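Backbone-to-sequence.
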């Protein structure tokens, strides 16, 4: 699968190494499009050729025009004379030339961009290289030798102007390839490098993408688009110092390539070859390889590494493919793709069962957060110092569904969502004050209502976790815990749980204790995967000595199923109506409701005792009032003042 070859390849002059297509990014830049006069040798006429890279004139090998472009049909088979250098190049029709770009005539150099590489290969034209490994012009550039690309461009434009060869200059925007690491333009240079085959396996690799389930499902397309765009084998050797050494030695006598025994880490650039004599020619001198691997060549091994491929074959067999790969969208084309490629070559299978792709965290204005742009920068250490890691964690779950879009981040947002943890802590502190001794208990309608709703929450969380949707799960837990359980159930059950005046049957009081503890325990278990520390702390303080992370995930309980759950919205509306009324009268929510009589919808009658104590209502009727002298608090709630 691996071979060495000299091909034109992406080269980053700043990093000083070959890079693969997966390491090339594109950025839009403004640049000059120069219209340059070329003389036609046969007719002596001037033709105009537009180019953004005049410094590559020395490597111009052919001039093309679109076969449909009638302006240039008469030039077919003739030759153009390249300014400055004076060499002759053929003029031929080729569909790559676009009639509406520049003058419609294009000079093909070795190499301005990918299309140059492709066209020269297609036409079988030997390239002339103009740029060396350091990003400077080489001897083919004549008097510009030694200049950087930018310097050479400036100088050659001056010279062309002096000769009257520049007709005009336009500002245009173009996409140019840059190095993902150092962000400077890449060049195309010939290099002898090692390649891993991939082009011939594209169809098979596309096929095994179906063996993996994607979260979100649409992220799969990023991978498919990348596989479809692969046009050259993967160049895996790099000219970097820091990297995994390529474990090879070469015989100085005959060039024999020696691959050492697997089992240990080799550093051929400083170690003696592990053999004495060349098995082919008997020579005793070896040269150690000094190149390193592409960083993705190592990273793409992570799933076989964690499954113990090299040291526990049984474990590997039982657990391959790996259950989950979570990763960012921007490294689908390298981390995910190369892991797939290797997995296919080694095992003929996809490496993962599930792939979870996340988008990015951006700042309040939707900009990429970057240390180099201080106005966007949010230091994770500052967040942890101010709010704690758990707050940061719960924020990342509650802020949005990051598998479907970017989520926005700011100190205010984190502070806001972290209030849920404080709320949870306070709820737990309140509930922990009640005994867990509730053997002989009886559930009130109110308890059955919240337990019925708890059953639904368990189902929502189960689905949420199965779909790896942290956002939906965390949001469902927060809404239930805060807006239903704390705001309404706990407020309503307080007086029965305390039962200070002994107005409730002790069995019903114990029913309140049972429900409070059961709901809290269930919330903690449901939330534990997302907020592992605060749930563990509460669990150990209030419940058992065994970690919450060793408990079974909650299941729906048949005995909690109850029609009472249908009362929930009415119950919430009733409470809100009474609270609004008390506020409008300027009295505390805990104070007695200063009205003669309250009318509630008939459906709420099962909650009578809890409602009366909760709002301190003297006379509560479950009917629509006949008396016209009532004040309407909401669609179904009335008071007689
Ligand atoms: Zn670079
Ligand atoms: Zn040899």
């Amino acid at each position: 699968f691996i071979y060495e070859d000299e091909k034109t390849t992406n080269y980053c002059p700043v990093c000083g190494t070959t890079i693969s297509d997966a390491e090339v990014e594109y950025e839009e830049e403004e640049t000059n499009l120069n219209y340059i006069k070329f003389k036609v040798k046969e007719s002596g006429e001037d033709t105009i050729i537009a180019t953004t890279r005049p410094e590559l004139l020395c490597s111009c090998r052919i001039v093309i025009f679109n076969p449909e472009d009638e302006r240039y049909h008469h030039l077919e088979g003739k030759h153009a004379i390249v300014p400055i250098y004076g060499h002759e190049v053929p003029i031929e029709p080729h569909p790559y030339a676009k009639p509406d770009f520049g003058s419609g005539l294009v000079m093909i150099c070795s190499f301005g961009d990918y299309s140059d590489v492709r066209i020269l290969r297609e036409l079988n034209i030997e390239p002339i290289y103009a740029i060396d490994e350091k990003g400077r012009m080489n001897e083919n550039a004549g008097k510009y030798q030694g200049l950087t690309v930018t310097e050479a461009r400036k100088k050659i434009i001056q010279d062309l102007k002096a000769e009257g060869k520049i007709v005009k200059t336009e500002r245009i925007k173009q996409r140019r390839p840059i190095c993902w690491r150092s962000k400077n333009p890449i060049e195309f240079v010939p290099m002898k490098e090692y390649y891993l085959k991939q082009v011939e396996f594209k169809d098979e690799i596309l096929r095994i993408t179906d063996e993996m389930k994607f979260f979100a499902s649409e992220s799969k397309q990023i991978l498919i688009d990348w596989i479809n765009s692969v046009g050259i084998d993967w160049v895996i050797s790099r000219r970097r110092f820091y990297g995994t050494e390529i474990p090879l030695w070469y015989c100085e006598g005959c060039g024999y390539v020696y691959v050492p025994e697997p089992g240990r880490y080799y550093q051929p650039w400083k170690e003696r070859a592990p053999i004495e004599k060349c098995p082919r020619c008997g020579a005793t001198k070896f040269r150690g390889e000094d190149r390193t691997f592409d960083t993705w060549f190592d990273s793409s091994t992570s799933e076989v590494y964690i499954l113990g491929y090299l040291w526990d074959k049984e474990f590997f067999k039982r657990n391959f493919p790996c259950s989950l790969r979570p990763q960012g969208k921007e490294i689908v084309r390298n981390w995910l793709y190369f892991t797939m490629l290797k997995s296919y070559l080694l095992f003929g299978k996809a490496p993962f069962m599930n792939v979870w792709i996340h988008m990015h965290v951006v700042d309040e204005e939707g900009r990429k957060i970057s240390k180099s742009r201080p106005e966007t920068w949010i230091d994770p250490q500052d967040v942890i110092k101010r709010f704690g890691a758990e707050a940061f964690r719960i924020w990342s779950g509650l802020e949005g569904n990051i598998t479907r879009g970017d989520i926005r981040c700011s100190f205010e947002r984190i502070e806001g969502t972290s209030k849920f943890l404080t709320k949870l802590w306070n709820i737990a502190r309140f509930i922990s004050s009640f005994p867990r001794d509730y053997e002989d208990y009886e559930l009130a309608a109110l308890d059955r209502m919240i337990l019925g709703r708890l059953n639904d929450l368990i189902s929502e969380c189960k689905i949420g976790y199965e779909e790896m949707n942290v956002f939906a799960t965390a949001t469902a837990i927060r809404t239930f815990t805060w807006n239903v359980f704390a705001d309404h159930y706990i407020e309503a059950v307080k007086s029965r749980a305390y039962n200070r005046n002994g107005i409730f049957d002790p069995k019903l009081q114990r029913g309140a204790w049972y429900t409070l503890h059961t709901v809290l325990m269930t919330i903690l278990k449901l939330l534990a995967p997302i907020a592992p520390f605060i749930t563990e702390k509460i669990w150990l303080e209030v419940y058992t000595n065994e970690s919450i992370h060793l408990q079974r995930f909650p299941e729906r309980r048949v005995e909690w199923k109850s029609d009472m759950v249908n009362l929930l919205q009415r119950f919430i509306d009733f409470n809100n109506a009474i609270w609004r009324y008390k506020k409008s009268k300027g009295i505390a929510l805990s104070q007695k409701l200063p009205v003669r009589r309250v009318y509630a919808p008939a459906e709420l009658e099962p909650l009578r005792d809890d409602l009366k104590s909760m709002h301190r209502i003297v006379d509560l009727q479950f009917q629509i009032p006949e008396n016209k002298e009532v004040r309407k608090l909401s669609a179904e709630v009335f008071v007689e003042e």
